[in-house]
């Protein structure tokens, strides 16, 4: 199994697991939170989110259903974010956390969009190279929001650094700087491939070194449980995006062209 196939499998299985978590707990899974308790039909949303997660995850496992599953997931995530996450920016536009929480969903949107853009290359609805560029731009903006949060909320980030690492403030700043640098690399498109790989590695290490030990140490608080699940989902999404990035573009007769040796892969 190659890198791209493995990342897709990881993402699909993560979606299925998140759906199961929602059904088992009878509550909206962490990646869809927060949804106010007063929201009409909230219990229906619990099952809707679980069904979408499991159905789309299962759909990504088979070639005939790959395109509709990735498109459905992309649209659902966009609509959900617009309804439940984007309003935070309107209510508190000067608070960085408003952008950080939207960034979490933006990573998942970018991952689902990347899968659709690759599989549906040549179709009209923001697929192919244009769709990949838009997804990378969205992902880059999310990474910038993550990076800023490390600086704005240093008092919350530094204590999460594993105790065996000296200088927690240094690591908080370093990881924030890496998020900012990789985000800029993706937004500008000047170093999208190394930026996406670096971001995926960092998100993976944070998931394993910060949230992993908490998971095995004993019962988690509700907040830490949500952060663990979200971080796992972000890890899966980050590798999907990283596996789709093209090598550095080369000059050819005065124009920038993708590496001709890289062909668009069909879903496997």
Describe the protein.
A two-stranded antiparallel ribbon has the order 1-2. A hairpin with a 2-residue loop joins β1 and β2. The chain is 71% helix and 2% strand. With 268 residues, it is mainly alpha-helical. The longest helix has 26 residues. The chain has one domain. The termini are close together.
Q: Proportion of β residues?
A: under 5%
- Binned, the helix content reads over 70%
In DSSP terms (H or I, runs of 4 or more residues), the helix count works out at: 10
Major sheet summary line = 2 strands, antiparallel
- Count of the separate structural domains: 1
Order of strands side by side in the largest beta sheet? 1-2
CA-based shape: globular
The overall pLDDT, averaged over residues, is 88
Oligomer: single chain
List the helices and strands and how they pair.
Layout: H1 3-25, H2 42-59, H3 63-84, H4 87-91, H5 96-119, H6 128-152, H7 154-157, H8 168-188, H9 192-217, H10 222-244, E1 250-252, E2 255-257
Antiparallel strand pairs: 1-2
Helix pairs in contact: 1-2, 1-10, 2-3, 3-5, 5-6, 5-10, 6-8, 8-9, 9-10
Summarize the structure.
This protein is mostly helical and 268 residues long. It contains ten helices and two strands. The protein has one domain.
Entry keywords:
268 residues; mainly alpha; two-stranded antiparallel sheet
